[in-house]
Write a structure and sequence with these properties.
Elements: H1 2-32, H2 35-66
Biased composition (Polar residues): 93-103
Keywords: Membrane, Transmembrane, Transmembrane helix
Transmembrane segments: 41-61
C-alpha cells in the first residue's frame, strides 16, 4: 500500500515539475517580447475575453427569456412505496419557550 502511495506521489511530483517548467518557459517567451507587442497582445486577449463574456451573457439572457419563469411543481415518483410516513401533531412552540408570556 505504501509503495502505491509513493508511486502516486512521484507521478504527481513529476507532473507538477513539468507544469512549472512549462510556465517558466512561457514566462521567458513573454518577457522576451518587446513591451509594445506585449501591450498589443494584452489588448487582443482582453478584447477576445470581453467578446466571449458578452456572448455568454447574451446566450444566458436569451435562454432565460424563452423559458417560462414559473416554478414547475409535480408529484415525486422516486420515493419507495414501502416507506410509510407518520404524521405527528405539531406542538405549540410557545409552550416550550424559555420566555414566558403574560398569563
Amino acid at each position: 500500500m505504501l509503495k502505491l502511495l509513493t508511486d502516486k506521489n512521484s507521478h504527481m511530483k513529476k507532473f507538477r515539475i513539468r507544469i512549472e517548467e512549462y510556465v517558466e518557459k512561457a514566462e521567458q517567451k513573454w518577457k522576451s517580447l518587446p513591451s509594445k507587442q506585449q501591450r498589443s497582445l494584452t489588448k487582443v486577449f482582453f478584447i477576445l475575453y470581453a467578446i466571449l463574456m458578452l456572448l455568454t451573457v447574451f446566450q444566458l439572457w436569451s435562454n432565460s427569456s424563452t423559458r417560462s419563469n414559473g416554478l414547475s411543481v409535480g408529484h415525486i415518483n422516486n420515493i419507495p412505496k414501502d416507506i410509510k410516513m407518520q404524521h405527528q401533531p405539531i406542538e405549540n412552540p410557545a409552550n416550550n419557550s424559555p420566555y414566558k408570556t403574560s398569563p
